[in-house]
Amino acid sequence: QVQLVESGGGLVQAGGSLRLSCAASGLTFSSGTTAWFRQPPGKERDFVAAFSRRAGSTYYYYADSVKGRFTIARDNAKNTVYLQMSSLKPEDTGVYYCAADSAYLKGRGSEYEYWGQGTQVTVSS
Questions:
Q1: Which burial class, exposed, middle or buried, applies to 61 when counting CB atoms under 10 A from its CB (0-12, 13-18, 19+)?
Q2: Over 80: is that where the pLDDT of 70 sits?
Q3: What angle do CA 101, 19, 35 make, to 5 degrees?
Q4: Is 22 exposed, middle or buried (0-12, 13-18, 19+ CB in 10 A)?
């Protein structure tokens, strides 16, 4: 019933920008934690960015490697979460996943309740 669908991936040159989208069905982002992860080729999945909500409070946190370059945002009306990426580097290459969990401040681990299928991002030199 719950489905997360990522889109917006593709090929981009180093220094360029890209925006990923995560559209949700059967779930809203009004509470809990929503995150982006990525899996570089041949490596394990890593945390990228997240926001966590409870009542009227929202907290944002990012991996050190993307701070100042990536921004996570949401559009509640469209039930969509975005990852705006700028100043892209070849090391940003990987499959990007959207994840959601009902827990507040879920953290940087990958044990989330719901996952999308991922979208490929390739950054060329």
A1: middle
A2: yes
A3: 15
A4: buried
Measured at the CA of 68, the angle between CA 6 and CA 82, to 5 degrees, comes to 20
77 Cβ contact partners less than 8 Å away, ≥ 6 residues apart = none
Structure tokens belonging to residue 17? 């920008």
Q: What Cα–Cα distance (Å) separates residue 90 from each residue in 17, 36, 60, 68, 73?
A: 12, 18, 25, 17, 23
Dihedral, CA atoms, 102, 84, 44, 106, nearest 10 degrees? -20
The answer to whether residues 114 and 22 touch, using CB atoms and an 8 Å cutoff, is: no
Write the DSSP assignment of 21-67 as a string of letters: EEEEES--SSSEEEEEEEE-TTS--EEEEEEEEETTEEEEEE-TTTT
Q: What is the pLDDT of residues 2-48, one digit of tens each?
A: 899 999 999 999 999 999 999 999 887 778 999 999 999 999 999 99
- The 8-class DSSP code of residue 103 comes to S
Which tokens in the block code for residue 57?
A: 């409070």
Tokens 């409070």 -> residue? 57
